[in-house]
Amino acid sequence: MLIEKEVFLLKIVRLTFFILFISLAFVSIKISIKTDERNYDWRNNSDGTVTIIHYNGPHLEFPFPSRLNGKKVAKVSSGIFEKRDIYSFLPKVY
After folding, report:
1. pLDDT, the chain, mean
2. What is the rounded CA–CA span in Å between residue 41 and residue 19?
């Protein structure tokens, strides 16, 4: 009887730590990406740079970043501005 209670408590402790671990993982991922960078989807290039493949921000302007996730922006995908009304390109300094 005592062993069954210990096994049950061990399972509860494991579940609690697992939930805590998953929660902290999601928080650290959100923190690691700057708020401004959340408007961009990018692809890592083999040379250590990135290519912007999608912009999710305001429709009237495109703040062109020089770096994303600490890596230099080398390219912008050709279809990024399709079906978008962009009136200005703003340099973004990080």
Report:
1. 78
2. 28
| In contact, 44 and 71? CB cutoff 8 Å | yes
Residue type, 85: D
DSSP element (H, E) containing 22 = helix 2-32
Contact 60, 87 (CB under 8 A): yes
- First vs last C-alpha separation in the chain: 62
**Which residues 6+ apart lie within 8 Å of 92 measured at CB?**
36, 63, 64, 65, 66
φ and ψ at residue 8, rounded to 5 degrees: -65, -45
Instruction: Give the mean pLDDT of 19-28.
Output: 79
Contact between residue 54 and residue 41 where contact means Cβ atoms under 8 Å apart: yes
In eight-state DSSP terms, residue 93 is -
Tokens found for residue 55: 């912009």
Backbone angles phi, psi at 27, to 5 degrees: -65, -45
Tokens encoding 40: 């961009």
